[in-house]
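Trying the structure run again after the queue cleared.
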Amino acid sequence: MNNQVGVVVAEVMAEAEGVKVTHLPSMIRVDAGNKMEVVYDEISEALGEEEGYFDAAEFEENMSTHYGRMIHLDDRTIMFANPEDAADYIDFDLKDLQKSD
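Done. Tokens:
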């Protein structure tokens, strides 16, 4: 979102390798190639808040859309463009559920 928190999130994410930030009138677009990690305490610090202030709930409140898969951990959210990469990260076996002839 293009609000006070969203601007700070975008500033922090702009420093991450492979991340592109585009400021639009009603939103801030943050793009990455295959994977992007949002480390909550980095955002908290940039906001001038104590560790733990920015969390998954704050992240969800300020995020609009993600095309791919997200993994929420206690200290960060990891977004993957490819769902198979997310499955590999959590060691989830993506079996072919279709019956082969």
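The longest helix spans residues 4-14. Worth checking whether this holds up in the mutant runs.
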